[in-house]
Amino acid sequence: MNQVFENINIKIISSCVPRRTVKNEEFGFLLNQKEMNSFEKTVGILERRWANDDVTASDLGFMAAQAIFEQEKNLLKNVKALIFLSQTADYKIPFTSNILQFKLGLATNTLCLDINAGCTGFIQGLSVAYSITNTLRDDELVLLVVSETLSKILAPSDRSTTMLFGDAGSAIIIGKSKTTGNSYFNTFSDGGNFESIIIQEGGFRNIITEESFSKDNKVSNLNLSMDGPKVFDFTLREIAPSILKLLSDNSINIGSIDYFLLHQSNRFIIKQIISKLGIEYDKTLINIEKFGNTSGVSIPLLINTFKDKLANSKKVMFTGYGSGLNWGNCLTDLSETKILDVIEY
User: Fold this and answer.
1) pLDDT over 90 for what percent of the chain?
2) What whole-number distance in Å separates Cα of residue 130 and Cα of residue 22?
3) Angle value at C-alpha 319, between 97 and 326, nearest 5 degrees
4) Residues carrying an active site annotation
5) Is the full-model pTM beyond 0.85?
6) Which pLDDT does position 250 carry in this prediction?
7) What is the CATH number of the domain that holds 163?
8) Per residue in 300-312, is it b (16+ CB within 10 Å) or e — as a string?
9) First and final C-alpha spacing in the chain
10) Range of the domain at 271
11) pLDDT tens, 172-205?
């Protein structure tokens, strides 16, 4: 799917991470020192943030949104739609955006919408937010909250997932701007490989039984599982061509892009994608060493982490890829975006 939006932009963006830092040495029971050195060099993660048991994805998203409305109190009354994007929602029923609408004090005539999406989620959520904004009046806004607590669905003994993921939440206000140019999106899906990143049971295709639960601290069918080699091959095959296609379809020179903000999946993968694009490595930004893979939150969290570098950037490429399998890109303007500091909760 290809989309072009005119005069719509991100007004303000905030991100929140848990206070709890989990360093690699806590996983000494999984990897020996040689394996740990290799992990840190290739994957690039040194630590990640994990939420406490009583903190949910909506809590992190709420704090990120609150940080915006504390600074820009006048924005609250103009929010007409709230999108909550997560794979770790508070409940199966009801949907979490409805809960956030009340907690944030948004009007009862606010459109509330939940999207279950993973590492491409920020691109997908932004696309939906821009689409809704396109139908609103000039002063009306959309609030997109992307938040994950993936630590709650990991198996401690699973070497393929447990050390990779971190928790975080972001809030993004989208609205119209008469001085912003076009924003471009393309999105892709390969549902034939849906099992590459999956929780096998707990939905209604495979309901929970006594056999679903972990025995002797082993990986259960209620934990996240990932086929690492298949996901690795997918990213190296599909991502760079999709970025080049977005640029060629819209007659945009790759040299004109200020920064490429890729989903923080793996340092080696990011380097390979940048190499395939034929651009300098300093055109991308990395924060995976501090936060790990935070799924759909990784790109907005990256924006807040590098707020000073990204200030006044007119052409920034966002690229997400992951569960689904899904992938997609967005080229937009951040030169008018207010980027807040990362906060802790």
Assistant:
1) 97
2) 35
3) 65
4) 119, 263, 293
5) yes
6) 98
7) 3.40.47.10
8) bbbbbbbbeebee
9) 37
10) 1-345
11) 999 999 999 899 999 999 999 999 999 999 999 9
